Amino acid sequence: xxxxxxxxxxxxxxxxxxxxxxxxxxxxxxxxxxxxxxxxxxxxxxxxxxxxxxxxxxxxxxxxxxxxxxxxxxxxxxxxxxxxxxxxxxxxxxxxxxxxxxxxxxxxxxxxxxxxxxxxxxxxxxxxxxxxxxxxxxxxxxxxxxxxxxxxxxxxxxxxxxxxxxxxxxxxxxxxxxxxxxxxxxxxxxxxxxxxxxxxxxxxxxxxxxxxxxxxxxxxxxxxxxxxxxxxxxxxxxxxxxxxxxxxxxxxxxxxxxxxxxxxxxxxxxxxxxxxxxxxxxxxxxxxxxxxxxxxxxxxxxxxxxxxxxxxxxxxxxxxx
Length: 321
Fold this sequence. Notes:
Elements: H1 3-19, H2 23-35, H3 39-64, H4 69-93, H5 97-134, H6 151-168, H7 174-183, H8 189-214, H9 219-239, H10 245-263, H11 268-292, H12 299-311
Helix pairs in contact: 1-2, 1-9, 2-3, 2-5, 2-10, 3-8, 3-9, 4-6, 4-8, 5-7, 5-10, 6-7, 7-8, 10-11
């Protein structure tokens, strides 16, 4: 058994447990770029490992009640058959070198889209907080809000997400959770993650079964991935309450950007320039956006201000003479 695969999957599992996303977007390029696995075999093996890893976080959210089961059902109506069809589309294209190249480029594009959507998600949450603070929007929900379910758009979201997952193994977390945010603004972040994780279980299982039948599943790759990713996801879930989410999202976006660029065949020099620009310019742009919406440039300063407000002693009432 390849211990390198086990440790690599362990690291990816921690990221998934911390953020609820990034499994396929990290695992598959890791297999292609560092272990020389063909793109089709990497997609197949990753999906089988994800089918075992995804339920780890799902059970936690089900116990906490942060899952909208009706949305899960509608998403699965679209995503489960679409994921199966996505694998059949790949099979119909054949398994030649050209198809491997197409899958590699599709995977790179999906990963870059995932990185972009992570930043979009963070910006949307910032806007939501600013509106709630200024009284221009509804207060952020503190309990389980009732949302008006949009049947057809939700099913279509599942179809699109399922097709992409079936063909690239990427999107079960990032793509669908962004769609849910856009359609159901009233859901809390924990409910978005919980609903998305639960719907991803049957979606990934469908894609994994289809790849096991029609794809290039390699158990010699899948088993080390399962052995490493499952405990990693559990540990990541435990750490998620201790590490700042903003730092985790930025680190994940950076890794996704690097993976996507290399899968698209971008040269080393160009990749280094892009990554350096993102590393230096990204935080500066984000600090400017935060200040524009009335927040301190650094989230750590905002956190200290909130803690200071909570711990400030109440002023003693004046005693009459």
